[in-house]
Specification:
The chain is α/β, with parallel strands linked by helices. The protein has 16 helices and 18 strands. The structure holds nicotinamide-adenine-dinucleotide.
């Protein structure tokens, strides 16, 4: 049983057998998954290192550690999450007991990206299984070592009728998308997100799209420049800048810009040394194609720091670019690499002109000690989620839903929000039989209507 339609049909049969509705069965699978992952910890780091020179440290904080905490969270809370939730009844339906049942959708397709190839495949898988679904997962073809390991882990833990991984690129994803799924969860680029949404629309399949965009980062004159530089260098260059919520570009108050750029340069050298190519902590670009793309966007811009490239070793140095044009090649798309453009502003109108030039971003960052300025920017601009005075860290709190808005995505997950994403809310009313107020039955009379109007007013 290796072809897509056979597996899908076996998964649908298993789902209808009600086996995955048993919360103890789900917990057993999730506990085995944890044991398997823990036993493969070093292999996971090795695979990520081979794929794009990701250090063990970054692999722990941004992949392995997050997956294990998600598993612990779900293992400790699943019995509580699946319980039907009693909801206050309405007098209009008196007598009744009202509930929300959390039920699985059925067969879920998950398509993952390459940039956090362990986290962004495992986390949705965990929550889809926790919610009682079956899963077909397609990890990225670009991180062969990690994707093969993910497939191996899934193969060791799950019967194929429950979860399975299909390896391959766009062709395999296209075949998978041609099937009828009960839910599709996609993480990746905006153009492919549109392809996924179109395929989902054909069967009216609900979909979560975790996409990308150009995330701005505003820095005003009230900040501590050194602290701000330290946080920006960490968040921008983590994973080699290949992070969906990385700061795509900075918008810095003109009066502090030159001083801030000097401190940024010093901070990059402090962290990665004078030649970041020699740093064991600095990841490589995922492949030659993306390295060439990044090298290409550096033509015709003012590189004020870094700029070294080596296509053969997929290396792009941490690079600062001064005041690129909004319609330059560098600024026309999500950068997704260790290149940081620095724009400047004098007034809030300057900021608006820059941010509203682009589609709604996945994230938003503002560094400022001016509370009024912070609140005004947080409220004015549309974005998925954001942080004041740091980068990326909103991803780390599982209590916060994570997702985009507009072209940066739809739907959200993380922690309990992930369980909710993969669960349908079934509204149930259990009507009491001990009395049966006759007001809504025919024959309809003026008196009944008067009573109903009052009831709507009082209890509606
Ligand atoms: P991608 O869209 O190229 O690929 C993602 C997945 O889609 C891969 O598994 C790939 O095989 C598959 N795919 C590629 N072409 C396809 C096609 N024509 N039809 C169907 N499937 C296809 O994205 P990527 O390069 O792997 O990842 C980078 C992008 O993902 C960036 O835009 C980034 O912002 C975004 N991203 C978003 C999040 C988030 O949580 N919002 C997280 C990570 C990455």
């Amino acid at each position: 049983m290796n072809n897509i339609s056979d597996i899908l049909s076996a998964q649908k049969t298993l789902f209808r057998s009600q086996k995955t509705k048993d919360v103890n069965y789900r917990l057993k699978l999730l506990k085995s998954l944890k044991t398997e992952i823990v036993s493969r910890e070093q292999a996971i780091y090795d695979a990520l290192k081979k794929d794009f020179n990701k250090s063990e440290f970054e692999s722990f904080i941004s992949e392995y550690g997050l997956v294990i905490s998600e598993l612990d969270l779900v293992i400790n809370n699943l019995k509580k999450w699946v319980r039907p939730k009693r909801i206050k009844s309405s007098m209009l339906t008196f007598p009744s007991k009202d509930y929300i049942y959390k039920v699985p959708y059925g067969s879920v397709l998950i398509i993952g990206p390459w940039n956090y190839p362990f986290l962004l495949t495992l986390e949705p898988l965990i929550m889809a299984i926790a919610a009682g679904n079956t899963v077909v997962l397609k990890p990225s073809e670009l991180t062969k070592n990690t994707s093969n390991l993910v497939a191996d882990i899934i193969g060791n833990v799950f019967p194929k009728e429950v979860a399975v991984s299909f390896q391959g690129g766009a062709e395999v994803a296209t075949d998978l998308l041609a099937q009828k799924w009960d839910y599709i969860f996609f993480t990746g680029s905006v153009p492919v997100g549109k392809i996924v949404a179109k395929a989902a629309a054909k069967h009216l399949t609900p979909v979560t799209l975790e996409l990308g965009g150009k995330t701005p980062c505003i820095i005003d004159e009230t900040v501590n420049l050194k602290l701000t530089a330290r946080r920006i260098v960490w968040g921008k260059f983590l994973n080699g800048g290949q992070t969906c919520i990385s700061a795509d570009y900075l918008i810095v108050k003109s009066s502090i810009k030159d001083a801030f750029v000097d401190i940024l340069k010093k901070e990059i050298s402090r962290v990665y040394g004078d030649n970041p190519k020699d740093s064991k902590d600095f990841p490589r670009i995922i492949n030659r194609k993306n390295t060439k793309r990044l090298e290409g966007v550096l033509n015709d811009v003012d590189v004020v720091f870094g700029g070294d490239t080596d296509i053969d070793s997929c290396y792009i140095a941490p690079t600062l670019v001064n005041e690129p044009l909004l319609d330059s090649k560098l600024m026309s798309d999500e950068i997704f690499g260790p290149i940081l453009p620095i724009l400047s502003y004098d007034s809030e109108t300057d900021i608006e002109k820059i941010i509203w030039y682009y589609e709604k971003p996945l994230a938003f960052y503002v560094f400022s000690n001016n509370k009024h300025f912070v609140e005004s920017t947080l409220n004015k601009f549309e974005f998925g989620g954001g942080v004041v005075n740091d980068l990326l860290i909103h991803f780390g709190n599982h209590r916060l839903p994570f997702g985009g808005v507009g072209t940066s995505g739809m739907g959200a997950y993380h922690g309990k929000h992930g369980f909710d994403t993969f669960s349908h809310n079934k509204s149930i009313i259990k009507r009491g039989n001990w009395t049966d107020p006759p007001v809504h039955y025919a024959p309809y009379t003026k008196k009944k209507l008067k009573i109903l109007k009052k009831m709507f007013k009082w209890f509606g």
